[in-house]
């Protein structure tokens, strides 16, 4: 079957992967309302395309934290990619690098920071969970720095793991032969079978529930890398993140896997963008499956987007070539959306190019 859009990879992945693995990747928390809403909310944003603009040359390139990348589409951190394909994070790293964009490596990767760095040059960020044992965190951050990673994406929405019922039903555990490679030498690399979700038990035992804003200062004291705060969905927290010296914000609800009934990230995005007032860049994570989604996020003020599940499902379907094609399709669709909207560069994408159903469009007079 010829794949013509990113969503088609999920069907292939579902057929290929063991149920426990597919369910772990695909599911959200509790009723999975936010999981559906992360997608559905994009369909409530409509375009206001401008016509008769010379779009013979279109530039989709951008910069993120000073790094030049080919497009505003990056890879979000997703755990345990060797469950999807034997090459795991190495394939994702190679595909992302060849696409000229940024990969974020999960703390819970099945390949280490050193192994990912060994795939060759590329701009890579490291996603960090803060463990109760801070020496573990210090070691991990230093290793990421030494391996050439360029930023830390600090996950802040997971003091405890959300209730993911399929993982409970499946008694989720890391398959035999796989470990969380970054923690292997620290005796923290195994996720065993329990009477619950093995990952929930692991998080309860290892991840620091006392994590607070002051720990961003602590993190800044142990690394010179810029820190992106991942998991902000309110204006209040966005302002505090700026005050504490965050280099950027990733508007994320953890792929709808933590607290159900939070808004879709595309709905929360504008509130966060307005709160930071241009002081730091804001990125969007969650629900992006089309180039049109990328355009909508940028029109609402995002500096770029991160994609998670599409990278897992394309990896499961066709390894490195799958991830490569997934990124290329998103890029092609995004470029086409720009052309059909009358935008030649990211700078030209504005709020006037869209209208949403959750506000009175600001381009209309106040009194109708």
Automatic annotation (TrEMBL):
Its EC number is 1.1.3.15. It catalyses: glycolate + O2 = glyoxylate + H2O2. Signal peptide: none annotated. GO terms for molecular function: (S)-2-hydroxy-acid oxidase activity; FMN binding. InterPro entries: Alpha-hydoxy_acid_DH_FMN, FMN-dep_DH, FMN_HAD, FMN_hydac_DH_AS. It is found in: Peroxisome. One of its GO terms (biological process) is oxidative photosynthetic carbon pathway. Homotetramer. This is (S)-2-hydroxy-acid oxidase. The lineage of its organism: Eukaryota, Viridiplantae, Streptophyta, Embryophyta, Tracheophyta.
